[in-house]
Specification:
Helix content: 25-40%
Strand content: 15-25%
Shape: globular
Distance between the termini: 86 Å
Number of domains: 2
Order of helices and strands: EEEEEHHEHHH
Number of helices: 5
Number of strands: 6
Oligomer: single chain
Amino acid sequence: MKCPYCHFEDTQVTDSRITESGTAVKRRRKCIQCERRFTTYERIERIGLTVVKKDNTREEYSRDKLLGSMVVACAKRPVPADKLEEAVNEIEAQLFRLGTSEVPSTMIGEMVMHRLRELDEVAYIRFASVYRNFADLEEMREAMEGVASIHPPDNEHEPEPPKKAKATGRG
């Protein structure tokens, strides 16, 4: 495995673990030359999945494209890279469990939106605005209200501040 920093071809595995979804092995590695550490993921290479687009064109499934679209939606958001990897692993596992050679792009889009909604609401809205191609601000507002109705603001559950006692006028 080449080091991503110095491109030396000899690295040492320092730790290996199976991911939570059980679909990949996460390996921590250390470069023998520059001694920097990095993570790799080992997974079964799957072949033969075709994505059917809305216009009925077909293209080969691309894990990188799926991850890339989620990374763009999560740009400048507090979503750890390993959580995105896990989400992609889970979506990929769902797709291959279907047992079909062709999958509609709409199904993949819905899976991505579901996972992004769990990870980060802003990323979900970003992705949904492109994926669903909102016609106007009203459609986007409805989507945002849908997210807000699931997760009420933190201050909704706070007790009301105590009311001041009224002056009686005696004195």
